[in-house]
Amino acid sequence: MTYSIYCRNLSIIRQLFKSNSALISQWCKLNNQSCTTYAKFQVERNIVCSASGNVIGSVAHWKPLTLLNCFDRLLKSQRRLRATHSAYTGSATAPVSDKEDEQEYNEYLREICAIPGMGQRVLVIQPDIKGGSRKYVLTTKELKLEETCTLVHTLPNWKVVSKKIVRTDFENTSEVFGSGNFEVLKNEITSSRNISAVVIGIDKLNGLQINTLQEAWGLPVYDRYTIVLQIFKDHAQSPEAKLQVALAEIPYVRSRLMLIHGGFQTEAAHIVGGVTPMTLDRRRMLLNRRESKLKKQLEALHSKRQEVRLLRCRNNVPTVAIVGYTNCGKTTLIKALTEDETLTPENKLFATLDVTAHQGLLASMMKVTYIDTVGFISDMPITLLDAFRATLEDALMADLVIHIRDASHPDRKLQIISVHKTLENLLSEEKKKNVIEVYNKTDLLSPEEAALLDPSVIQISAVTGQGLAELGKAIEKGLLATTNHLKKVFRIPNNHQMLRWLQQEAAVNSITPDPRDSQYLIAEVIISHSAYGRFCSTFSRKK
């Protein structure tokens, strides 16, 4: 599309909206700036995208084909302002419906921090932080860069086209980088035709930093928090997971609202009518209503989950929670332990967001329920963790916890410490004693690399089955120590109903003929305290 066509489209829009001269002048002011930034980049790069997937404030939004759409949003915003004014001045107005709330929230989200529903060609910049609280410990800048790139590739149709490490004193500048590096990056990004977005490998940038970078580079800028949040939104399948992701989003959106309130309002906000004190109040109310609604819905689901846990307790089936860093092989291990062919492990980050339960049998025939959980990540924002706390309760209340470590990952030391730090905040002192440490993916190591692993940690491969027998014994030993289960040996007459009772109510490990009397059998059994009491009462045996 040529620049002349762009101007012709603008001329048509001037005629269509000449009755709104104030709004047009506001748009023209922005357009004059955009000709050298947003519009210029868009024309030169010839990026093709649908108008419906555009995000206000992103480069793609300023294409001529979307200008009408932009003004349509602007007029809708003006109508909402009038409706809000009526509400604040006491005029009669209909109550805001959930549908209207949802529509307004989504539009607000697009203004400040949403990720477009299309692919991106991304430059990933990993700051090499000189010092302060964000200085890398137990990892390297190269490994952090690779993890950030992996996060980006997890999003559909996102591709890392360039990546680099840039030294910075991150904590003391709104530009993130020093003036020299900042200018070099600005020249590189603005002259490139192959970049449509920039991702900074920092857990969370503040709103001022994001706005400063976007204004200088003319491209959308994202941090790790935004990328992880979008991955969660893409992968959430169950109603509970979707609710938890929506709840985790609220604090981030609220922080951006506070930034706008402080005067750092984006041009994107201006084009939809600006953010006045009245709209700020309305948006605060909108966020509060949404947060309250999500919490109530989650509480209802939480009650149902408690009922399921109570049923498990009544059935005396012990639970084992599988936890670990994202993509360490948790689902693959559960599939190997349960032989459940319906499980489909995926080699991607945060493939599992829903906590699911799977029945399995140990070699002793003891029934076990394995709990699959959401994966952890380094510098996991506390707001994400808090939103998923209700789901993680299944892991917190399990009889035993298995921490899976990816033995093949070059950054495994940081991953192990990140998981331990998270568990430290989640588990009680008693539960911390019931954690089994396991190295997975040892089949990917050379003998020399395997020899360097901690010998006190069980080594397995969920793919080849190596070490699973040893793990099964450790699980049985751990469950016997933490649950009301006993190992018992019974001498039972042949074809007696005692055996049938035990097979229904307990885990019968083995049955062998009594070498002293062929009329009897020797049964090795794992049985709960309550079931053992019923057995003694039913068959008039002494405990």
What would you say this structure looks like, in words?
This protein is α/β, with parallel strands linked by helices. It has four domains: 3-89, no CATH class; 120-290, Rossmann fold (3-Layer(aba) Sandwich); 315-481, Rossmann fold (3-Layer(aba) Sandwich); 484-538. 50% of the residues lie in helices and 16% in strands. The chain has 21 helices and 13 strands. The strands form three sheets. It has a six-stranded mixed β-sheet, with helices on both faces. It has a four-stranded parallel β-sheet with strand order 2-1-3-4. It has a three-stranded antiparallel β-sheet with strand order 11-13-12. A hairpin with a 6-residue loop joins strand 12 (507-513) and strand 13 (520-528). The longest helix has 38 residues, at 277-314. It is elongated. The N and C termini lie far apart (87 Å). Residues 1-24, 32-68, 77-96 and 261-276 have low confidence and may be disordered.
Q: List the uncertain runs.
A: 1-24, 32-68, 77-96, 261-276
* Structure class: alpha/beta
Tell me the number of helical segments per DSSP (H or I, 4 or more residues long).
21
Cα radius of gyration in angstroms: 29 Å
Instruction: Outline the biggest β-sheet.
Output: 6 strands, mixed
Q: What percent of residues are in strands? A: 15-25%
Widest sheet, order of strands: 6-7-5-8-9-10
CATH topology of the largest domain: Rossmann fold
Overall 3D form: elongated
Q: Provide the number of structural domains.
A: 4
The helical percent reads 40-55%
Architecture (CATH level 2) name of the largest domain: 3-Layer(aba) Sandwich
CATH class placement of the largest domain = Alpha Beta
Average pLDDT figure: 75
N-to-C span:
87 Å
What is the fourth-level CATH superfamily of the largest domain? GTPase HflX, N-terminal domain
